Amino acid sequence: MFDLLSNLIGKISFLFILHVTGAGQFPKPLSEKEEKETLEKYLGGDSDAGDKLVEHNLRLVAHIVKKYYATGADPEDLVSIGTIGLMKAIRTFCPDKSIRLSSYASRCIENEILMYFRSAKKSAKDVSINEEIDSDADGNALTLMDTMAEEDTIVEDLDIKMKRENLRRYINEVLSEREKQIINFRYGLDGKEPLAQREIAALLGISRSYVSRIEKKALLKLKKRYEA
Question: CA of 25: how far to CAs of 11, 50, 90, 103, in Å?
Fold first, then answer.
């Protein structure tokens, strides 16, 4: 799904122009039943289902990007960043939670745009963080600074979740069963407390130096896989 990023960005830009001029519109949102069925297909490895989820949620990107037009940022850049946020949302969404994908995706899209503003040095000159961009439920003005502060934890949580998923995938890809066992014990990846090398050695009936060698070898494999 993520290999099609450039095509999707081009598509949303085109659809957005049509939508604004009244010449066209975005694909309609999926019904709750359709969304559930498509998510199941995507989680089962169907990349076309992932593309379908992106396309039917493109209106979220357009809606959120419009909020930031007054900042002076390039609309195409915002569309690109917002689309990346949408893709991340679909990749990390957990269907077991009592929340619709659209709600989760909206927050991810906005988080991605806010991270873009925080990381871009140029935006410090072009964007006033005290500029009003929205209002809360009581009608009070919300500035970019207010929104960034509120979303910090969500951004960090999302980043940690993605890194954790990548790590687990790399462990399964490059480590032997013994190496997986040592790394899981050593760093508590199985949900338990991390163990010292001597504790692992006693548990498995091997020497501490052997545990150390396996750990170093496994970490080197993970480092190479991560860099690749």
Answer: 12, 20, 22, 21
- Of 154, 148, 200, nearest in space to 178 by CA: 200
Lookup: tokens for 219: 């970490």
Selected residue with higher pLDDT from 19 and 52: 52
Torsion of the alpha carbons at 86, 56, 106 and 118, rounded to the nearest 10? 40
Which DSSP category does 95 fall into?
T
Residue 85 · residue 75 · CB < 8 Å: no
Q: What is the DSSP letter of 129?
A: T
**Residue scoring higher pLDDT (193 or 138):** 193
Question: What global pTM score does this model have?
Answer: 0.47
Q: Per residue in 57-115, pLDDT tens?
A: 888 888 888 777 666 667 777 888 888 888 888 988 888 777 888 888 888 888 888 88
Distance CA 191, CA 149 (A): 30
- CA atoms of 166 and 174, how far apart (whole Å): 12
Q: Based on the number of CB atoms within 10 Å of its own CB, is 54 exposed (0-12), middle (13-18) or buried (19 or more)?
A: buried
First to last CA, the chain: 19
